[in-house]
Give the backbone structure.
Amino acid sequence: PIDVQKTVVAAFRDIDANIFCEFIARPYHSWECGLNEHTNRLIKRFYPKRTDFSQVSHRKIAELEHTFNTRGRKSLGYRSPNEVFLTHLLAA
């Protein structure tokens, strides 16, 4: 008999490995993830390095998320992530 749980877990690990290969830059290769580096710099404008995020309220983090998700990005044709998401959602 086939162990379905083991098969699903194995498939998930394969998918998970492929996703991480796409989105994590190699150490000391920051040019591979310009948008990630840019976003990190933006976060540091609000919360300096070594900020203890366990002391930051969920509301403050949600406000920062809203700020970033409604801000136009060059890589998205100066549309916000929210606009792009809604466009794809309505097209589906």
Summary: Confidence is low (pLDDT under 50) at residues 15-23. Helices lie at 4-23, 34-46, 58-69, 81-91. Residues 1-49 form one domain. The chain has two domains: 1-49, 52-92.
